[in-house]
Amino acid sequence: MVAGGLVAACVALFTLIAEDLLDGGGLISHDEAVLTWFVDHRTDWMIHVAKVVSTIGSFVSLLIMGVVLGLWLLSRARRLAIAAAPVASLLLAGLVSTTVKGIFDRPRPPVTVHATTVELAAFPSGHATDAAGYFLAAAFVLALTVARRPGSQLAWIALGLFMAALVGVSRLVLGVHWLSDVIAGWALGTAIAVTVVVVLWYASTAGHPRPASEEGSARAQ
Question: 2-220 architecture in CATH?
């Protein structure tokens, strides 16, 4: 119920931003002012940190992390669907964001403000979509399989949100995306992460007893 509501809210937000992109109103009307603020206030060290964060949040880096995490989860839970959820979410997020970029073909901010080299269109931010898709899926899976108390479950989810947010903000600091690109990417990636984890979780647990670690988590709650 909660998962369905969250997915619906994220899809609605993405749709509203996409509509704004077509008529120039709503959030889109604030894009230039936000970009100007980031460009005017960024420093050399902020740009350096943003480049490092963007590298960590790149598709290849996330894929490597996802494979390592998946192998570790598989060794613990021995459930392929759950172990593969973060990578599956990342792959779907990358496919969807690339497809949408081709459909909207939105220009990026002026190249004069870019602090790094970029390709493809602007909307939605691929980094923001991929980061939300991967980090949130990983956080949800870890909260379901590793965390034993509600507090630790919330901590995993908070960490996932923080990492996704950090990657998105790094693209604003680097001047390669509009604010609406990043928010749309977060919404899209979150919807994908929740959907993938819920579907694979139920697919992997249907008709199977829960591992001891998960039973302990349930008792702690």
Answer: Up-down Bundle (1.20)
